[in-house]
From TrEMBL:
It comes from the Bacteria. Pfam families: tRNA_edit (PF04073). This is Cys-tRNA(Pro)/Cys-tRNA(Cys) deacylase. GO terms for biological process: translation. GO terms for molecular function: aminoacyl-tRNA deacylase activity; lyase activity.
């Protein structure tokens, strides 16, 4: 895959954070970007996390949850001390993050949004999330992901 660099990988390199990139050939016909990544890379799906952009009280925020679950919008709102959350319009999510849907990374976003990481991530030594492009995942420790994004850790997956 030519040109593997993304804002996410640039941030990891700049901060000298240990990570491993994993690429695979993205199939546009696959129904789930996250499950596709798990299958293509031979990973336990619960260890692969998807980055979802939502609106909490009218402001964009990010929920990072296992690809096997759904984002609990009430849980996301509570974690950010908000009242109400709903999924963001895809165009708004892409504009704010600088990434395309299916390749949105919690790292290196154009506009730094509040991030909440599902607590299930802490059970793994490393987790996988988008590196900023469909077909490119980054393996990173949950602690490094929390530190780099300023994430709150809470139960936000259902």
């Amino acid at each position: 895959m030519a040109g593997r660099g993304t804002p996410a990988t640039a941030l990891l390199d700049k901060q000298r954070v240990a990570h491993t990139l994993h690429s695979y050939e993205h199939d546009p016909r696959h129904e789930s970007y996250g499950l596709e990544a798990a299958e293509a890379l031979g990973l336990v799906p619960g260890r692969v996390f998807k980055t979802l952009v939502a609106e909490v009280d009218g402001k964009l925020a990010v929920g990072v949850v296992p690809v096997t679950g759904q984002l609990d919008l009430k849980g996301l709102a509570a974690a950010l001390k908000g009242k109400k959350a709903k999924m963001a319009v895809v165009a708004d999510a892409e504009r704010a993050t600088g990434y395309v849907a299916g390749g949105i990374s919690p790292l290196g976003q154009k506009k730094r949004l509040p991030v909440v990481l599902d607590e299930s991530a802490l059970q793994f030594e490393t987790l996988f999330c988008s590196a900023g492009r469909r077909g490119l995942e980054v393996e990173i420790t949950p602690a490094d992901l929390v530190r780099l994004t300023g994430a709150v850790v809470a139960r936000i997956a259902s």
